[in-house]
Amino acid sequence: MTNRLIPFCAGLLLFVSCNQASKTEVSLKDYGAEPTVINIDAYTMSNSNFRTALWTGVNLQSTLMSIPVGGDVGLEKHPATDQFLRIEEGTAQVVMGDTETSLTFVKTAGKDFAIFVPAGKWHNIINTGNKPLKLYSIYSPAEHPHGTIHKTQEEAEEAEEAANQHYFNKNENFMTQELIQLPYATNALAPAISKQTIEFHHGKHLQGYVNNLKNLIQGTEFANADLETMIRESDGAIFNNAGQILNHNLYFLQFSPTGGGKPSGRLAQAIDAAFGSFENFQKEFETAGVGLFGSGWVWLATDKDGKLSITKEPNAGNPLTKGLKPLLTFDVWEHAYYLDFQNRRVDHLKSLWAIMDWKTVENRY
Ligand SMILES: [Fe+2]
Question: What are the strands, taking DSSP E only, across the chain?
Fold first, then answer.
């Protein structure tokens, strides 16, 4: 008798305890990257926002969603983020596919169903029932900013549009597709960068990318686009040449023969906050540059909240494609240093601090 009752009572007690938790302890907020234990069923059922961020860590995020009758999550694709969803209440049709118009994977799902969305797949979840569809989602890595609350789908779409807004005004001097004029003489940055390297790097390599891009965009949708648009929306040769032009423009225009020293103001504070000290930032930046295999760029970039990070981008890569604003960059293609430093990439990178024009970088921040 006892043996038969215990499992039943334990289950009953757990059930009562869950219900009590849902009545008294649900506090909808983003718990951040803190140790957290919650009854996610109760939280999901309590959420009536289109989206509420529940937990945002370094590599993973959980959000709660409530989709009104007849509504949907919205057709979208996360290029580099895997997603898990679990339905706590309601009925849905799940669609996925390789393009927006070819959603060949179609399944019906309901309470207690799990949905796995691979990175790069177009997907949508449509509420086909007669009550709000309650689900929670886990993204890896995180998809939305910490503390995100979208009361409605319209609000979610507005936020996404804002996130896709450009960082740079097309009138900025580094946004030009033409060969930029250097604000210093070709011999003015020696010994960090010799006259000969400047002449090849600016006059031959950058000029080559400018010529290539002109030819490539003729008659395409990018014919009148600015560099940032091309980097965000193109791929292949247009992306490579537009990326190399913007990257080199940002690179050449950040130097001055009277440069050196340290940043000041907001940028200096943000560097201390992110890296502990300016000296530590320099060390981490050089390490990233040395550790980048092959050709590419090492960047200091900021997110929309002003938080700084160092990113390594291969080939023509730029942090814009990660939603970050580029501030400062070292070119680690061999053409940037081989005439002066041969294989001693680290010595070249260390030498660039002496010509860094921090006022220019501060203005980009
Ligand atoms: Fe270069």
Answer: 51-56, 61-67, 82-89, 91-97, 105-110, 114-117, 122-127, 133-140, 149-150, 296-302, 308-314, 325-331
